[in-house]
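In this section we walk through a basic example: taking a raw amino acid sequence and producing a predicted 3D structure, encoded as discrete structure tokens. The instruction is simple. Fold the sequence below.
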Amino acid sequence: MPSTRDIRRRIKSVKNTAQITKAMQMVASSKMRKAQLAALAGRPYASLMNDVLAAVTEGAGDFNHPLMEKRAVKKRAVILISTDKGLCGALNANLLREAAKFDKDTTVYICAGKKGGQFIHRTKRNLAAEFTYKDAPLFSEARAISKFAQDLFLKGEVDSVAVVYTNFINTLSQRPEVRQLLPIGKISALEAGVGGENVETGELKKSELEYLFEPGAEIVLGNLLPHYLNFQVYQFLLEAKASEHSARMVAMKNATDNAKQLIKDLTLEYNKLRQANITKELLEITTAQMAMG
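The resulting token sequence is shown next.
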């Protein structure tokens, strides 16, 4: 049975831990708000770009671009967007579980974030490149990742490029998702409306708006596709960072609440033990007094 001194030490240790998790919760909360606003602000632009690109693709007729070339998938590249640090609940575990579903022998990985790189090394998978990105991702960082993936595809080293990232739903919910980046799917008979991507095929939805392009749809499409891919990767980074800070804030809040509950339980146990010791000492004094007569 632990002594009162042992319990006091445990209470002090848990209090110190609670102070750390509370501080981390406040830091994550501050970063979370900025990251969420950045991710949400990028969605309308991405949606409008999908609309424009769908219209260009339709206006270009039978135009084919190297980035749209569909080949039999013998080798695939996966851009794995993870976090640099842990302490964010099950975020990385769920993400890496999705990344592990790809065939080990025919897949090369492009990692953004240290946790993804560590997973690839630990599981002895093929790592093509590893990139870092800041708490506030820069477009130049996304462009470097996208450019590397495009080069692999254009050189014929891979036949398909997918992105595994965590999509931000809300503060309490983040979902790991797999999106096809390359090849870019041609326009399909999907229902018109808000621009977007078909998650399974990567095909673009048709827009109801009509556009007039100068000097021509083919030239515009040729220049727009690389920028479209760059921005898609940038939006994925924003979504991943918003998910990371949200998950970390929730995880640290839960840790702080658990620490407070543990302190209450230990304090109750300490008071019971102290009361039992006092009662025991009183009994010993009374017994001794009665013995002395």
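Looking at the output, two observations stand out. The beta strands are 76-81, 107-112, 126-131, 160-170, 173-182. The helical segments are 4-59, 91-99, 114-122, 139-154, 217-292. In the next section we compare this with other chains.
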